[in-house]
From TrEMBL:
InterPro entries per UniProt: CFA/CMAS, Methyltransf_25, SAM-dependent_MTases_sf
MF (Gene Ontology): methyltransferase activity
GO process terms (BP): lipid metabolic process; methylation
Top-rank taxon, per record: Bacteria
Ranges where the Methyltransferase domain occurs: 54-148
Annotated protein name in UniProt: Cyclopropane fatty-acyl-phospholipid synthase-like methyltransferase
Swiss-Prot/TrEMBL keywords: Lipid metabolism, Methyltransferase, S-adenosyl-L-methionine, Transferase
Tagged with keyword Methyltransferase: yes
Entry-linked CDD domains: AdoMet_MTases
Family: Belongs to the CFA/CMAS family.
């Protein structure tokens, strides 16, 4: 068993914004690889402005919604399937962002969303639960304003799991979910085609797997993913054989009528 090492989450040169947050606080909200690092990786492409409205899909216990409100001054609708409104609200009150963040509980696949209500939609380490559905994104982007941005991060294998079998330990640990861990090229095409988005780009940071390992060591304890990460690190290569793909795209403005 590894002893938790919260100090490993402080990487001011790589993630200056995320490093301003108390590592112990972030670990207390743990539901997967560091969501603030994922969000900060997308930050420049999101180009958020104070006063905008953002939908945060699958924020879990709320770290990303706090980050959005504090760092960008945006109003956030935080929609999660598992975390209750009451539990999430406690986090937002404690962090002083209750006036900017509205917690909601529900399933994004059936939730009522305002048409063209959001300047941005983000999702960190939750997209694998719904984003591969070819019908999902077309409905979701109706909630984006023209010119609005979608940004998400999700686990990704360099070799598509439908074409190259994942390592046995990963398949055993993640189960059928591993079949949603597509490579960056797949996500770029899927997002553009099924969502009708433009300026789509998808990338896996070269240090993505190392960061995943660092997060796992910071959490400590007995992690079933620790050996998986080590096995994929041994494969080498760039992009890493396992990591988190980051995807951004924009909703086009309606064509002008002649």
């Amino acid at each position: 068993m590894i002893i938790p090492s919260p100090e490993l989450l402080l990487l001011p040169e790589r993630f200056p914004r995320s490093s301003r947050y108390d590592p112990a606080w972030l670990l207390s909200l743990d539901m997967g690889p560091n969501p603030l690092w994922q969000l900060e990786e997308l930050w420049d492409d999101l180009a958020l402005q104070p006063g905008q409205r953002v939908l945060d899909l699958g924020p879990g216990r709320g770290a990303t919604s706090v980050f959005l409100a504090r760092e960008a001054g945006v109003a956030v609708d935080a929609l999660d399937l598992w975390i209750t409104v009451e539990e999430a609200a406690e986090t937002y009150r404690a962090m002083g962002v209750e006036d900017l963040v509205t917690p909601r509980q529900g399933d994004i696949r059936t939730a009522d969303l305002p048409e063209q209500g959001y300047d941005a939609i983000v999702s960190l380490d939750a997209w694998e639960y719904f984003g591969t559905d070819v019908y999902f994104l077309r409905r979701l982007v109706t909630a984006l304003k023209p010119g609005g941005v979608l940004g998400f991060a999700t686990p990704s294998l360099r070799d598509d799991p439908y074409l190259v079998e994942p390592l046995p330990l990963l398949a055993e640990t993640a189960g059928f979910e591993v079949l949603t861990w597509h490579p960056a090229e797949w996500w770029a095409k899927h997002t553009a085609l099924t969502g009708g988005l433009i300026d789509v780009k998808a990338w896996v940071p070269t240090d993505s797997l190392d960061l995943w390992q660092r997060w796992d060591e910071a959490v400590g304890g007995d992690s079933p993913m620790r050996k998986v990460v080590a096995d994929y690190q041994a494969l080498g290569g760039r992009p890493p054989a396992l990591g988190l793909v980051h995807v951004v795209g924009r909703k086009p403005y309606a064509a002008r009528k002649s």
